[in-house]
Amino acid sequence: MTRHEKSTAFSRRALLKAGGALVVSLSAPIVSEDADAADGAAAVAIKPPLTPDQLSSYIAINADGTVAIYFGKMDMGQGLAIAIRQMVAEELDVAFDATRIFIGDTATSLNQGGASGSTGVQNGGLQMRMAAAEARRVLVAMAADKLGVPADQLAVTDGVVHAVNDAAKKISYAQLIGGQFFDVHLDWNGKIGNPLYAPGKAQPKDHKDHKIVGQPIPRDDIAPKVFAQADFAADIKVPGMVHGRMIRPPVAGAVPVKVDEASIKQIPTAKVVWDKGFLGVVADKEWDAIKAMRQLKVEWSQVAPPFPDQAALYDHIRNAPTRKREVGKEAGSVEDAFKSAARVIEAEYEWPFQSHARMGPGCAVVEIKDGRVTCWTGTQKAHFVQAGLAATLAVPQEAVRVIWTSGPGSYGRSDADDCAMDAAVLAKAVGRPVRLQYMRDEGMAWDPKAPASIHRARVALDAAGNVVAYDFLSKGFSRIDVNTNGGEPKDTLAGQTRGVALKSGDGFGFPGDSYDFANKRTAWETIAPLLDRASPLRTAHMRDPVGPQIHFASESFIDEVAAALNADPVEFRLRYVRDPRDIAVIKAAAEKAAWQPRPSPRKDQTGDKVTGRGIAYAQRGATRVAVIAEVDVDRSTGSIWARKVTVAHDCGQIINPDGLHHAIENNVVQATSRTLWEEVRFDRNGVTSVDWQTYPILEMAGAPEQVDIVMINRPEIAPSGAGEAASRPMAAAIANAVFDATGVRIRRAPLSPDHVKSALS
Amino acid sequence: MAGPDKKAAAHMEERRTMTQKFSLNVNGKDQIVEADGDMPLLYALRNDLGLNNPHFGCGLAQCGACTVHLDGKPTRSCVTPLAEVGNRKIVTLAGLGTPEQPHPLQTAYVAEEVPQCAYCINGWIMTAAAFLRDHKKPTDAEIREALTGLKCRCGTHMAILRAVKRAAAMMG
Questions:
Q1: Does residue A107 sit in the same domain as residue A21?
Q2: Residue A281 · residue A247 · CB < 8 Å
Q3: Would you state the pLDDT for residue A329?
Q4: Residues of A in Cβ contact (< 8 Å) with B109
Q5: What is the value of ipTM here, to two decimals?
Q6: N or C: which end of chain A has fewer CB within 10 A?
Q7: Domain boundaries, chain B
């Protein structure tokens, strides 16, 4: 079978086979599959119903003793699948190589929240660990019964249960249950998504007994990609499939009023799909779909340009009415403390809209056949896409299957879910399976954006230079203007263009730190979106949602206070940071970078080429990160090179040090890119960042010379998220280093050459 | 434009856009593709020949995700019209090496666990393969220079550098 044919050969049976699910439960009814009956194959059992309170929903033992793991989160390329397999193998006492994992297919996994908030190990791994521990307990109990040996006198080695004192008395997992599903009830907390938790009666192992957890087991999904043997969502082909392309308005908010179908009549098989503001084309051949998209003549409604001039963005945020205000922390009496202050220091910071700008724009394949819907997508949240497709197509959720397939990177609510919904609308309209791939301009200009914001910080000092009060306010567009997933039509372009009203949510965030100031207030305020429908500047989650924004401000500001007091930036932080793990990461980074105490800025440099160093730190959930950036600044060009970056990172127990190292390193580079280069450009009509020239990111020439990473392992502490934490303090570390080098404080991101040059002149 | 020139230009334009048969030598195998002459090579590889490895990233030759070798030269297939391929030999990532006979860069990529999402790797590997073929024992600065113009959104640049240096050492 050629690879080309392979991708057309999807059937549920083939997938279940591949999924290692050919195991029958004697207790659950055996159900034959329509598809299999139709092709004359023998009846094949399928999994019992997927319910969160059943062990079989997470783990099964195949006839050959291998362990099938069904996981409802996704691995976006950070090695999560390996980490989960390690955690399950550890608890079950099977070899790592005996595990198989099946991820993000709504037919085989529960909604565990998808890729979300760096909870893959923290929440998803915890659940799988508990399920595996329970599976081991049940298997050992079964073995005790069969062998006539009390459970407490049994041990498990590589999937074989044996008597501690008599090696001859043994039975394997495969012999005990291989090929049958567990029928074991779990104590489900009634929640789905990230908070889903369903432990059994078993306790997981003591970390001191871990042999597989903590090992640097390499990823096995890399070789197939390097040898061009793995399919991405963009590579899926199904029989009868046509190609779709979308057409977006020249002025955001405009809708088609006249579509001249004759303008593409010379393009073979090209068809128009038009429904209110939704406009797309399909054709049998991809190139024909692209040509039809380019050549279709459309008359658009006249609408007022919806956006301010970009130069007025931050004034707009300052002046816009606050839609919602939330106070995170209020200790003491902040206002009183400022009234009696000996000295007040204050500053304001600005952060632009940023784009996910994925390597490839969104792509999805949707097939609607015999009342059933199948979607292949690189979404982060397959189960929410399932719900979104059901709502978009007005079919029951049970009729929809979403199969997560690798996509082009993913850092939050990208264009993936919009694309799946658009593809579904096209597929329904033309009665054929549709593969829709967005074009590059859609990937930048039309994906949900990380919100732009301003941040005001001030401290009150007493006469001795002690901080007696701290006040921090973020004001900006909401992180959930559209939701974190495409689960409802109100949150997708397909929904909004076809008339479903946006219900813009409110959310922002607070600094994550343990600075102990006697009087302390942190707050945020959100403002309304610039356009209330199908907006290219709609805002949502992008990697470490609002973390880079907030901590660019909060950690730059701490540095400003330290400089005003002529204090060393590390020493000043340690004066006020109280959490022992926070202190540990700051000290570890300083030690690794051989930090020499002195105040910023340096005063010993002349000429255009100067260097500096800066530190910043943050908590993200239970994870702590400190970063020291050492930068070269060219005053004549404004260019900055983050030459050396030192990271100290504590996310509790480390499951896989290799995976963690890569996750941290990649965060460092991407966050450096966001800090130095990334800003969505727009004019009054729409977004003008449409490609890599108008939305530049870090190039190889700008990659650091050296990234040193100190991973603090705390096996006694539950693992917390590592997928985005290191993104959080990067911007401030770089800005603080630029200040150290130049004596100039840059309070607006990105620190691109033109911004820096004008700030320095 | 004079009459005959205009006529010739129109004829060329017609040749570019009309559906015709193209013989392509891809990964050592001759294959026929029937398509418009202005269709970028990328779509012929992906849709007509089933070679999914070159990816659509931008369609503008700005990122490299679609890179293949044409007679050994890294080329962005997303902006290369079929009519301009001629009889040049096309090699894609799938033709660079196999698990049994890997290119040193493929070995190095696996050893260094380079990719996060891996969508971009055609650009980096195919560009670096040509560079390392022509430049033995390159310096760090030369490698960075050679790889400028490629994009990796996941930020795997440090691992890419390690892998290219590892492959360079393997290639002597």
A1: yes
A2: yes
A3: 86
A4: 222, 226
A5: 0.94
A6: N
A7: 17-92, 104-170
